[in-house]
Design a protein that fits this description.
Number of strands: 22
Oligomer: single chain
CATH superfamily of the largest domain: Thiamin diphosphate (ThDP)-binding fold, Pyr/PP domains
Number of domains: 3
Radius of gyration: 26 Å
CATH class of the largest domain: Alpha Beta
CATH topology of the largest domain: Rossmann fold
Shape: globular
CATH architecture of the largest domain: 3-Layer(aba) Sandwich
Distance between the termini: 66 Å
Helix content: 40-55%
Strand order of the largest sheet: 3-2-4-5-7-6
Strand content: 15-25%
Largest sheet: 6 strands, parallel
Number of helices: 25
Structural class: alpha/beta
């Protein structure tokens, strides 16, 4: 192989594509031939370029050196951007956040072995939340000359493909000629219209450089999967409308599949005399101050949201998977006798018994159902159900305000009064909304308090990764501010535990020019689990420590990061946020936080959960309800 000639051809091809504005434009103009001799690695990068994948985030290793060479050439031509980072899980989180906030697609690249497994763990978040991205992982060689370093030990072939395939779509490119089909399968998954997910290409180290002679570039897939239409009728809409108009207490549960159905949801609420309970995934799909919005419900739901769920006699489920916390482990709807389930996924649509399933796109299906309700004279203004729910919502707002009015409490750990999470999160969330900053919430107490506090008036204000509840997601998400072509300022609401799982954002954020702030709530414990232990068993065990960490000094140790102390009041926290915003880059604010038994220190719990010694009672209740 004449390596110099091969490199020259690759460079010329990449530059021609860049000048033409894309692969297809270069083919149509004849600047590049449709039949070319290219390596498997280059075919993959060309195929992903056609699918508008231009961002590559990850870590190169001995398992991906050939892919790395192609990315070097294509990045120098300006066709792709490559972001080397310090942890593969961070790479997946950043790619997930980028897709979620801006819609831009990415590929995460890793070597063989531990790096690939770090990425696999990170995919729990996009898998749970319905977000598509690509994984390019190094794999063992196919000629079996002996064990490869970092392969999964054992004599079976294709073990990485089987491992990754147990969680998502995965394809091992053992045969380079299968590249077009592999890319087609991935396209269908990454751009799935209602249940997008990561897709993994397992790339054996010896097939990456294999040449595909006279390869036809027109074979590379170009057609994205279409969105589903509205649910088919067959009298289902009329049946659903009759059930809605006959019910006295209608609740709507809006999940991730309702992201694009905000206007239709608001019209439906009035036509059906319904109230809404939202998932943290779609905070803002109905404005927080909408009179029929009872906010979040579930095991960590609000007083008003859980009241609406428990008292409703009819549930209209829109785009929800019924995760354990979202419906109190299937005990959230104590009095519901019927369910109208609008979902594009068959298994989710058939989750409950006594259902009228409407299988289709949420917005289009709601639009048709609204038309039927209008024809049948839907709408009850100022009904008893509406008034009862409004009273609970007003009680919830008063409950919240009581906590904001007492922003500090004495904490023996700190030896003084410090900010409570409710007061500090409220202050920072309002600041984010005022400054049009995107808020990311990490797992744990910060997350549970956060989604009960944010007052989003539209989608895209805050992002709460409740599907996998992955510690370190929020801080890693700030890297998306450097990758995106649609600039935004991000604020990561994180606990000390979540931050220390992914602190490399301090370095990677500076390296790539992230613009955002890490708001680090420090109570030296996993407070969500400490609270659960105390509630269940009356004792807290192995969920905290006494190690003092100077997070401001840690952040300042990375040149380019600005670091601040929040002080001990909401006023000083606002001053720190303003100072952080003035810094043109990444910043960190250390917030010493209260943990303890005082109820004003948290947002409370109003639901059930199938966990610990609550399981037997929760399961018995679920079977007693019987839907």
């Amino acid at each position: 192989m004449d390596r110099k000639k091969l490199t020259s051809e690759r460079v010329a091809r990449a530059q021609a594509i860049a000048r033409s504005g894309g692969v297809d434009q270069a083919l149509q103009s004849g600047v590049i031939a449709s039949r070319v001799d290219i390596s498997l690695s280059e075919a993959i990068i060309l195929g992903l370029l056609i699918q508008e994948v231009r961002n590559y985030i990850g870590i190169f290793g001995h398992g991906t050196t050939d892919v790395g060479e192609i990315l070097r050439i294509y990045s120098e031509a300006g066709l792709v951007k490559v972001f080397p980072v310090r942890h593969e899980t961070e790479a997946v989180h950043a790619a997930t956040a980028l897709r979620w906030v801006t819609g831009e697609k990415s590929a995460v690249f890793t070597s063989i072995g531990p790096g690939a497994l770090h990425a696999l763990a990170g995919t729990l978040a996009p898998l749970s939340d319905g977000l598509g991205l690509w994984l390019l992982i190094g794999d063992e060689t196919t000629e079996d000359e002996g064990p490869n370093m970092q392969q999964i030990p054992g004599s079976d072939q294709g073990q990485f493909q089987r491992l990754f395939g147990s969680m998502m779509g995965a394809y091992q490119l053992h045969t380079p000629g299968a590249v077009s089909e592999a890319l087609r399968r991935g396209y269908n998954q990454v751009d799935h219209p209602y249940r997008a997910a990561p897709f993994c290409l397992c790339l054996p180290m010896n097939t990456q450089p294999c040449m595909l002679m006279n390869f036809n570039l027109n074979e590379l897939p170009r057609q994205s999967p279409p969105r589903p239409g509205a649910a088919a009728d067959g009298d289902a809409y009329a049946e659903a409308a009759r059930a809605i108009l006959a019910a006295e207490r209608v609740v709507v549960k809006a999940g991730g599949g309702a992201r694009g159905a905000g206007p239709e949801l608001q019209e439906f609420l009035d036509l059906a005399d319904a109230v809404a309970v939202t998932s943290p995934l779609v905070s803002g799909v109905i404005p927080f101050d909408h009179p029929r919005n009872m906010t979040v419900g579930g095991s960590k739901g609000s007083l008003s949201g859980n009241y609406a769920m428990e008292e409703a006699d009819l549930l209209v489920a829109v785009g929800t998977r019924f995760v354990c916390q979202s419906d109190c482990s299937r005990t959230g709807y104590l009095k519901a006798k019927r369910v109208i389930n609008i979902n594009a996924d068959l298994s989710a649509a058939m989750h409950y018994g006594f259902s009228i399933p409407l299988l289709g796109d949420a917005a289009l299906t709601l639009r048709q159902l609204n038309a039927v309700l209008r024809e049948q004279g839907g709408s009850k203004e100022n009904s008893a159900w509406y008034r009862a729910c409004r009273e609970k919502r007003e009680a919830w707002d008063a409950f919240r305000q009581e906590r904001y009015d007492r922003p500090t409490l004495f904490d023996p750990l700190w030896g003084r009064e410090v900010l409570t999470q409710p007061a500090a999160i409220k202050t920072a969330a309002d600041w984010c909304r005022k400054h049009d900053a995107v808020a990311f919430f990490d797992a744990g107490d910060v997350q549970a308090n956060g989604f009960q506090i944010v007052e989003d008036d539209r989608l895209g204000r805050s992002f709460t990764e409740t599907g996998a509840s992955y510690m370190g997601f929020a801080v890693s998400s700030l890297l998306a501010t450097a990758v995106t072509e649609k600039p935004f300022y991000g604020v990561a609401f994180t606990g000390d535990g979540s931050f220390t799982m992914n602190p490399q954002i301090l370095i990677d954020g500076v390296a790539h020019g992230a613009t955002g702030c890490i708001l680090l709530f420090d109570n030296r414990r996993m407070a969500a689990i400490s609270g659960l232990q105390a509630a269940q068993y009356g004792a807290v065990f192995a969920t905290g420590d006494t190690v003092e960490v100077d997070y401001v000094a840690w952040a300042k140790a990375v040149k380019g990061v600005a670091a601040f102390h929040s002080g001990y009041s909401t006023e000083s926290l606002l001053e720190a946020l303003d100072a952080a915003r003035e810094h043109k880059g990444l910043s960190l604010i250390h917030v010493p936080s209260y943990y303890g038994p005082d109820p004003l220190g948290g947002m409370g719990v109003f639901g059930r959960w199938n966990v610990g010694d609550w399981c037997s009672d929760t399961q018995a209740l679920r079977h007693d309800i019987g839907i």
